[in-house]
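Tutorial handout. Part one gives the primary structure; part two gives the three-dimensional structure as tokens.
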Amino acid sequence: MSSAPEQEAVQEGHATGVVVPAQPAPVVNGAARAAPTVSVWPGAPTPLGARFRVGPDGVTGTNFALWAGGAEAVELCLFDEEGAEIRVRLTELTHEIWHGFVPGVLPGRRYGFRVHGRWDPWTGARWNPAKLLLDPYARAVDGDFSLPPEVYGHVRDWPQQQVADTVRDDRDSAPYVPKGVVVHDDEDWSDDRRPKTPWADSVIYELHVRGFTRMHPGIPEELRGTYAGLAHPAAIDHLVRLGVTAVELLPVHQFAHEDHLLRKGLKNYWGYNSIGYFAPHAGYAASGTTGQQVGEFKRMVRALHTAGIEVILDVVYNHTAEAGELGPMLSLRGIDNRGYYRLQSDARRYTDYTGCGNTLHVVQPHVLRLITDSLRYWVTEMGVDGFRFDLAAALARSMHDVDMLSPFLAVIAQDPVLRRVKLIAEPWDVGSGGYQVGAFPPLWTEWNDRYRNAVRDFWRGALPDVRDLGYRLSGSSDLYAWGGRRPYASVNFVTAHDGFTLRDLVSYERKHNEANGEGNRDGTDDNRAWNCGVEGETDDERVRALRRRQLRNLLTSLLLSTGVPMLVAGDEFGRTQRGSNNAYCQDNEVSWVDWSNLDDPHWRALFELTSRLIALRHEHPVLRRRAFFSGRAHSVDGLRDLAWFTARGTEMTERDWYAPAATLGMYLSGRDIPGRDERGMPVLDDSFLAVLHAGDRPVSFVLPGPPWASRYEVVVDTSRESQAEAPGVVHRAGAAVTVPARAVLLLRVVR
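Part two.
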């Protein structure tokens, strides 16, 4: 129950609010005109959203359907080209779905909803028909979210802020919010060929549509920063030459900018603030925002598929842009606040497992339907190949705890469309018990932050021993070897969008996020970085050369590891964010990929090494195993599929694993690869020895003799700026080779 002062605040707020008439006359150029007559036929409750179709008697129009549990009435609001609004009551109600067919409403028409009901925030009821609401199923969105006071369901500037969310604001929000757009889905995908790259063969490249293309000199100016820009041959050529098999796009669902950023003149650049789960973000469209963005996105997907590249979307179904109780009213909050969001026992407040103010109530059937309908739409109608789920642990919560038998995971596992696409979990959230690395069920892969931490720590000299590194390099069997999961359940990464770039990882030890306007308090302090002795950029060529060597070491470690490697756009040629490890609101040169780096021979050499390492993965199945190593001998000569060696050339003992060490030899046998090829024949490959040495001085490493090898040929030597001189050097087994300080040697076994 609310206190008396709070009740008085609400009553006073209602008394002083500006009330908009329920059915105003359209206004164009300052003059009122008579509202046109609009017919509404009963229509159908499915599918949800706005679907253009042929109705009774061959009449074309659009069927509108909105789930609004608990609402007392729903108005469909149609907007013409001048912005005049026509409101139409939807009178048909089927299983809490309000619906109607409106003849003559064609693709390109903008619309929204106003939903009537009780205003009682103490019980979680926040209906406010003065606020125009975005259709959760809108296929396209036109306009920007500017978040003036009129967009809030409560009086944002109420003097008593502790009760401000309980005071209803009756000012009309329609002039200030984007509208949904009716879209005609007529794309023919019959000639599209999905790459269907097996998980074990995948190399993922995380990129931002705008940031990747915004400064590319080969993309026409008018296409930079857009879906069409990513579809341009100049962008695709880089991906093909690099050799990646999939792009993982930072959020492309329609999103809004947070109020605290807009007040500082900033914007949400990353896009983890979704408000439209079916609509491609209009800000990335070159062709228009009244439905054209849908076709542009589809053409981008088709172009990438033609190049053999899959498209994976980073999706944010754990929360929305409406934030907590003091956030704006944009869509779900005004449709059914209690039905869409997890509320606390004090129903004024939101349960927040995301750190963003709210959490979607995925246990509710209609919320689960919204998410799965959205996922299927992006697969079947937009052509995408998979999803990376932001804060996936929040989706796996049942009532409170994370539950790997939760409704969300159960529905995904049995869905005939979704169970066939790539599913990647960010396996944590900010709530209690939210860290779930290694716990997701089969079908799922996971971002493996333990891989990131171990590899970073090894190369900066912070690992007490090499036990953890051994697990990470060989597929993290300690995390994933259960329930039929495979090594490719581990998405290995050293960097991601969130944190330092690879170049900054070896150039900075402290975050430098001052440009975000938060006093450098934002962003993690656990960077596990080493600046090679100088903080930030330097003219000291010795430091710069060491940093480039460290980059080669990190990339080589990543691309030789068992599992699925993930690169971040620009890391392959030295992209920097100038020390920012939280560039989420930097839509500028800080975040955009600087393609001029490729004009520098040093960064060009790094790109060539990365491309060469990816090519090695594609050529050698021993580097992309589909089953975990056994570590046991499979032949009479005692050769095992995986063996570990000390610098003395002896196999690692239990004592060696626990002893301080900066050097590790990893032997991968190409004779004992599980499985058979497409013709049923055994899979055979070369064998390799990788020597990783993180010490600051050279080390003598004895190459293992028979049965492991008789000779070894150098394939990669990261101590060299260019690899042109490294390949072809042959060493006999048993010889002691000098491994330079901080370097990786990859040697192919020559029998």
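Part three, for discussion. Residues 552 and 718 are 6 Å apart (CA to CA). The radius of gyration is 28 Å.
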